[in-house]
Design a protein that fits this description.
The chain is α/β, with parallel strands linked by helices. Helix content is 40%, strand content 20%. Strands 7-6-5-4-3-2-1-8-9 form a nine-stranded parallel sheet. It has a six-stranded mixed sheet with strand order 11-10-12-14-15-13, sandwiched between helices.
């Protein structure tokens, strides 16, 4: 079993008591009393807090963390060991001591003496807030050698998502209970996947403000968005690969559909920084061991990297994706066989045509502008040129616009020159307007007129600044949510073989965007 533990980090007994009540109400499976957060901590007030925690009937970890390993207070070592010994005497389920301090003979002797004839279990923890440990497996073995009955807890900063795989490997190969987690945004997935891979505990915060370590996920998100109660060792993992990725609504819509169809599956945001080298390393890491990854949505800046990977290392590349020159969907099949697809093409065209209430034939010879020459831009250029529209590509890097224009026999110019365009349909395929740059627009308001239709492929926020400009000038508008939903429906079918529940997707997307 993996416990979902909520750290209790109140500055006094009153705050801690309130946090205990909230944690229980939100479905915590364990409480961690972070007594180092309590100001002017005494043994008496600690014992009062422990009684309150034990009255919940939830398992309790008592921690009085050394500041050198992420603690809050400046309490001396002897006092912190006093707290742990009192916790053992009072029947706490677990106490957590830093491994570096446990190697002090006096600390080891005091704790082991207190643990004699006790049901309390000892956690020996090690933290690295700067980078991964040099040899994670060796550190695990070292802790076991020093204290065979202890539970090793190894927590380190993942500077890149590829740093998480060492944690997964250790959990898969461990011989007893262990807690292994990664900190930081890149390491967030390790906190959710702790249950799949068998970490004894993972930690979720009551809120962002109450987080006690970088990358902790809120308990409400863990329980609802990330389907905590449904995760087990057989759970199939999917995700959206990108940078940035925190704004993505893909986890919400895919996990909602998994819920509706009662599939043992989980969809996560996967922050993959870097370029082609890091992308290929990620794919290599996840395929070399059976981690149960089933597929990925791929977004900025990795669609070309996904195409190259599917073409060189994959088992199948959809001809449409090859023609477009971008892959936004990777499926991992039996034996780790990877297939690449593009669902942006159909998603964008269907959104454009259905919202405007026109047919493909009515776009023939229509002057259109495509802002951006990335993966989505490639798909829309391919779709528009295929049906005979007159396309001009505008991009900050003119060489990239030129290269794309030559592939599809259309015109090109710099993004700055878009202010002089004469287009009936404007397609924003850049990331301009998405968080955190929601106050930016790829075009000034004076470039938009009432005879235009403006399609923004950005879907979060639902009404971007360029769409506000279009609305104010009475131009027709198409928001990115329509494209997003349609391409996601196609991805879901590729991933699972099932038709998604369109109403669930729509309700989830528009509900989230309105909030």
């Amino acid at each position: 079993m993996t416990y979902l533990a909520v750290p209790i980090s109140g500055r006094n007994i009153k705050e801690a008591t309130e946090q205990i009540g909230k944690a229980c109400a939100l479905g915590a499976e364990m409480l961690e009393l972070r007594t180092d957060f309590i100001e002017n901590l005494t043994v008496d007030c600690f014992e009062q807090l422990l009684v309150l925690a034990r009255n919940t009937s939830l398992p309790v970890i008592v921690t009085c963390r050394d500041k050198a390993e992420g603690g809050c207070g400046e309490y001396p070592l002897d006092f912190r060991i006093d707290i742990l010994c009192r916790a053992i005497a009072a029947g706490a389920d677990f106490v957590d001591c830093e491994f570096v301090n446990f190697q002090d003979d006096s600390v080891e002797n005091r704790l082991l003496e207190a643990l004699e004839d006790s049901q309390t279990r000892l956690i020996l923890s090690a933290h690295n807030f700067d980078q991964p440990f040099g040899d994670l497996a060796a550190l695990y073995e070292n802790i076991i050698d020093v204290c065979p009955q202890a539970i090793p807890k190894l927590v380190y900063k993942a500077n890149h998502i590829n740093d998480c795989f060492a944690a997964f490997d250790l959990l898969k190969n461990k011989t007893g209970d262990a807690i292994v987690l990664c900190m930081s945004a890149a390491g967030m997935i390790s906190r959710v996947l702790a249950k799949k891979f068998g970490s004894l505990v993972t930690f979720a915060s009551l809120s962002d403000e109450a987080s006690t370590a970088p990358g902790q996920v809120g308990i409400e998100q863990m329980k609802s968005l990330y389907r905590w109660d449904h995760i087990d060792a057989e759970t199939r993992i999917y995700g959206v690969i990108g940078n940035p990725v925190g704004h993505s609504l893909s986890p919400a819509i895919f996990n909602a559909c998994f819920d509706k169809q009662k599939l043992n599956a989980l969809y996560l945001p996967i922050l993959l920084e870097g370029q082609k080298l890091q992308f290929n390393e990620f794919m290599s890491n996840l395929l070399k061991n059976n981690y149960d990854f089933g597929g990925f949505s791929v977004t900025i800046p990795h669609k070309a990297h996904a195409l190259d990977y599917a073409e060189v290392e994959g088992d199948h590349l959809e001809s449409l994706a090859a023609d477009i020159g971008a892959v936004n969907t990777l499926k991992v099949g039996f034996g780790g066989q990877v297939s690449g697809y593009n669902t942006d093409y159909a998603g964008a065209l269907n959104a454009l045509l259905s919202t405007l209430g026109i047919t493909k034939h009515q776009l023939h010879s229509v002057s259109t502008a495509v802002l951006g020459a990335g993966g989505v831009g490639r798909a829309i250029v391919a779709g528009l040129t295929d049906i005979g529209a007159h396309v001009t590509i505008y991009n900050r890097t003119v060489a990239k616009a030129k290269s794309l224009a030559e592939e599809f026999s259309c015109k090109y110019a710099s993004l700055e020159e878009a202010t002089n365009m004469d287009a009936k349909i404007v397609n924003n395929c850049t990331s301009i307007g998405m968080p955190p740059n929601v106050d930016n627009s790829p075009l000034p308001k004076e470039c938009i007129n009432c005879n235009m239709a403006v399609f923004d492929t950005v879907y979060n926020p639902l009404e971007t600044l360029i769409l506000k400009y279009a609305k104010e000038t009475c131009a027709k508008t198409i928001n990115g949510a329509e494209m997003f939903i349609r391409q996601a429906m196609a991805q879901y079918k590729i991933f699972t073989g099932n038709e998604p529940d369109e109403e669930v997707m729509r309700t989830t997307v528009f509900g989230a965007l309105k909030r």
